[in-house]
Amino acid sequence: MLDKNAIGRASPPTLNEVEKGAIRRFAEAIGDYNPIYYDEEYARASGYPTIIAPPTFPASFHSAADLRELLGVGIKSLLHAEQGFDYERPIFAGDRIYVSTRVSDVFERPGISGRMDIAVIEDEGRDEEGNLVFRARRTLVVRAAKETP
Amino acid sequence: MPARKLYFEAIRVGDELPALAKAPVDRVQLSRYAGASGDYNPVHVDEVYAKSVGMPSVYAPGMLVMGMLGQLISDWARGGQMRRYNVRFIKMVWPGDTVVCKGRVSDRHGSGGRYFVEIDLWAENQRGELVMKGSSQIQLFYSLEDENRQRSGQSPIVVEVPRESLATAQQASAGGAAATSPSAPEEGEEDDERRTGASSKKTAPREKPAAKTATLPTAKKAKK
């Protein structure tokens, strides 16, 4: 059973600079060759100020979060069960986005082999003016390490 | 030249997104995705490690598959803005697997000059097994005219469009078998008489897409 007190625990915002090369490599890794991720001119002709990032690009952002610290347990394994994003606007090359991570929920759910510990982790990305850019939610099945302190 | 854009007025509930069959996943792609995402979890890149924890091989991170399904949406919704994108990971994707991404418009609605379509999404492997399912909400301009107006600083075109899934349900419960959406897409090539006939044929299957192309996600949804 994960500690309910973990709910609300958060990491301080960490700066992520969105580089064109990072967008390109991310889109290439998915095998997505939409020119909107590569070609400045094409992006502008499509109505954007510059190239944009694919919708799952926030997966590449880092935050200061250490899940073991946030959840307060040693982690044996994590299973990514669900993922969600809410977008206020597209992410553009050149954006400077501050990402913070918080534990938004912790609960138990019946699983095939007994009860499963579930943690819902929410990332929030804001621009330098503090405007919300996106929210991301990860639902994780957590298997805590056996040795309990 | 940017590709042709998608506008709200042209979309109908039940429209299917053109299926996207991705190239088979291989270990090089898993390495590239690890590098691009910064997620070096060894179960995705280190074969020896993956086997040591009981896996037959490395496997694709769920986020890679979510990225593929995201491509399906972005390819279709050119000119639209993704507002929401949620998925549930169902089955692992292994090297050699081919992911096929599919989607269908489940709803459309607009109010106050903002227009949204809701899409049901799912991904299958080469055996037709469901590996992921999800949904997305896309915001679109109503029409080219609406886009031109807004880009030149004018007010948007305002058409109140109630959630169509609700309207369809009401029509169906009222016994309206012939009920069609008020404005079927009519690219006028034929004369009026033939067009009327053609358009009723065209819209008829759109009314009940679930029955025609029922797959697991739809079947589940219908039961709710």
Automatic annotation (TrEMBL), chain A:
Q: What is this protein called?
A: MaoC family dehydratase
UniProt-listed Pfam families = FAS1_DH_region
Domain of life per record: Bacteria
Tell me the SUPFAM superfamilies matching this sequence: Thioesterase/thiol ester dehydrase-isomerase
Check the record and name the InterPro entries matching this protein.
FAS1-like_DH_region, HadA-like, HotDog_dom_sf
Cite the FAS1-like dehydratase domain residue spans from the record: 6-134
TrEMBL record, chain B:
What residue ranges carry the coiled-coil annotation? none
Q: Which Gene3D superfamilies match?
A: Hotdog Thioesterase (3.10.129.10)
Q: Disordered: where is this region? A: 166-224
Residue ranges of domain MaoC-like in the record: 18-107
Listed Low complexity bias regions? 167-185, 211-224
A Pfam family matched in the record:
MaoC_dehydratas
Top-rank taxon: Bacteria
Q: What is this protein called?
A: MaoC family dehydratase
Q: Which organism is it from?
A: Pyxidicoccus fallax
